[in-house]
Amino acid sequence: MSTPTPLPPVDRTDRWWKELPAGRNRLRGRAHLRTDAPALNLDGTWDFRYGTRADGSDLGEPTEIAVPGLWQLQGHGTPQYTNVIYPIPRDLPHVPDENPTGHYSRTVAVPADWAGQLAAGARVLLRFQGVDSAAKVWIDGAEIGVTAGSRLTQEFDVTEALASPGEHREHLLEVRVVQWSVNTYVEDQDMWWASGIFRSVDLLLRPVGGLHDLVTVADFDPETGQGTLSATAFDADGAEIVAHLEIPTLGHRAATGVDPLAVGEVRPWSAEDPHLYDATVRTGTETVSLRLGFRRVEVDGQIFRVNGERIVFRGVNRHEADPVVGRAQQLENQDLDVALMKQHNLNAVRTSHYPPHQRFLEVCDEVGLYVICEGDFETHGFHADSTWGEDGTGAAEGPAQNPLFEESLVERSERFVRRDRNHASIVMWSIGNEAASGPVTEAMVAAVRETDPSRPVIYEQDYAAEYVDVFSLMYSTVEESAQIGRRELSPEYQDKLTSMLRGFALDVPEGHFASPPALTKPFLWIEYAHAMGNGAGSLKEYMELTEQYPALHGGFIWEWIDHGLETTDAEGNQIYGYGGDFGERLHDGNFVADGLLLPDRTPSPALLDAKHHYSPVGLEVTPGSVRITNRYAFSDLSHLRAEVSVDAQASWQELALPQIAPGESVEAALPVHEGATTTVRLTTREAQGPVPAGHLIVSADHVDAERLRAALTPPAGAPATPVQGEDGSWSLGPARFDDLGRLIGLGTLELESAGVDLYRAPVDNERARTRAPLEARWKRIGLDHARRRLVEISTDPVDRAVLVVRSRIGLDGSALGADVTERWSGDAAGVDVDVTVTPSAFWPGDLPLPRIGWTFALPSAPDQLDYEGFGPHESYPDTGGGTTFGRWSSTLEEFQVPYVFPQENGNRAGVVRAALSGGEGPTLELWAPDGMGFAARPWSTAELDARAHDGALRGDGRTWVTLSSALHGVGSAACGPEPLPQYVLGAREESFRFRLTAARS
After folding, report:
1. Least C-beta-crowded within 10 Å: which of 4, 263, 482, 864?
2. Of the residues 434, 460, 766, 978, which is catalytic?
């Protein structure tokens, strides 16, 4: 660390952090170009002082800090998470006096080899790619300017401040960053509030006669196969200049400014075939390298097209997040995220809710993802009080309708479009997210169109799509989406949308949604399927709508990754922290952990579910045939290998794929056999970018339940007779029961807590912050602490080989409960049970049961699992896409899904046989020929339910096993819809049967 230098003098009259229009002395936005012009990267270790006053009057002692980085994750202050509400008073344009502030400094010297160009008139620019939330910059004590737009590139001309021609010396660069500024009010984006210089800082030499900016539009005509290119070069003053363009592989050389330039036949760019042409643009002093993708994006009535073909967006919303450095620049994450998206059949991403790091867009160009690039704009905190949606006060003072913000927000919109408009992957612009609607947002959309007329513009909160090109909504139900697809809205849905617009303090007449402009335009779910914890449900039903209604173009799951931060709890457990784990008074809990990836970028089961329903190929397997649907827009299936298995995936044989054009379906014959299962899968023949050869694209199967039942029913031995002991206990073959009729042993194997179970740990979609807070209702009636009462235990009067146990499950303080009848029979090898569960007849009709099943614990703690059923990942009634019937093996640890907030997880559906081995006892084998849900855990449901972090879960030395005959769906209600009716577990009578055997010890 260098010797402390004097700070700029305190000026209490300069409130630069709350000025509107925001920012000072910044250069106009321009494209981020790959250039051979000299540059000096300033990333690394900077000197740092931390305080709580934006004027710098209380800055502490100097220390060091990493740039890029966030200071809250480097030991200065703490991160805070809120979703909607602002973490400061809503007091436009002011922010509190207590304003966490970081003062960065370092020395910088203009490289000696720049001197010649500086003497010739070159300029030096200081570039910040990301500073949260506003910063003032000095060089040698002289003010340079003020940033505005945390996730927007800002440049300052620092030529005179740094050096005179021929001079070479060190200068002091200082950057004072405040956490709260006027920018805070337009950057309320459902993520951690954390501050600092979090993207790169560079010093750029801009040569005389150089390429200051470049605008390209690489068009493709799908009718002729011909490409055209518009390329316009600009100097630092914004004047058009002539440069020399070359595309070597096309043999093309020309001057810029010829509009448009015919380049002949080209291979078009798409997410399926992301072909790029290397190009250069030169002046006498600078060369810029480009990667051009020729493609055409257009809205054709209600159809969104790329290169003339309708596109379905199989997408995800992506925040920038990392468990160690948070939102700070992590170059390897940009490539890794795109690779994971491509490997899981995603073809689109929305950069919610700000422009991403440049590398991310470069990889999307290279690998092939359709991108909705979004502006750095959200004002969700104006939704937060009772005035929103009632008298409209919150919306009326918000930036969408506040002229004080118009100049800044229009400039911000132009800035991000100018930075990114040369990327082929970007097919649509979005001005922002959840910021209401009004004259300012209309002006922002108009500015985007003027800056780049080649792409459509979307903004979800223009609910009637009156000034955007594409209609979009968040979390519309399957039925509401079908209405949009049919282009006919019910009166109830019209009223709902009208109310939503009136919530923005807009004057919306009755009948506004009878035939709005929205129903003439393409539709997207800009957010849907909230993937928080164990969820989201019903991806299948949503994606089926895109095949039924041409106007429905798919959408974007919320969201890509859990934002958990590595930390330690009070007990010393390593956990992923969320809202409230850092001492925050105001926070939104674990709502920040709602991604398809766990914080360490491990795919969750939800991503595997999405992979199946996002597959570019549809498979429907029936006895003797498979229907194959090519969902690609441009590709045939020659790059894929088809295989079939007729023995529960024990072996595979190649299946000849017929020619199937994009959008077509073909029936293909499958081997005729006597087995119970037929499984078909498609894999890649060769590597395709980050997708390796042999990678599974999609699999599906047909299971003949009758054949399976016949094949897997274990042979029965001579019936055993129930025997009652003197102490009231019972035995039946190897099975032992206590005097209350509970199974306590099987041979030498002990069992505990065995019996019917109606509860499972709630999932995030059922907790207090959701649309359907089932957890509170279940616990209010004591379903998580149900009590059992023995009613009767006796041998069956007709069949003396059957032990009948009748019991009652009761709930404290209530007459609710369920009657249970267990009919036990056995032989020398094991024991069978038929169970009937009858809930109370007066059970509330709107209160589903969590589950109906049977639970027990094994003190021997087996830790190896083998099962036959649907796998390899978890599934619930409305999830589990991509699971197929087979024989699977797992350790107990691998069987768990470490959701950030512990909850129900790990269920495997349709399990007909399972074996639990290892530990200190014999192997236990389960048989359920009709198929049941199966889960095994090193902890009880009560432990899973009680803990707030996965890292805090503690096993009790037992292995807990649950068999589920029925489960309630997981839905999407943490932010989206509840489970569809067919996935709701009503309080119905349920019967099931299974068999237990234990190997002899």
Report:
1. 4
2. 434
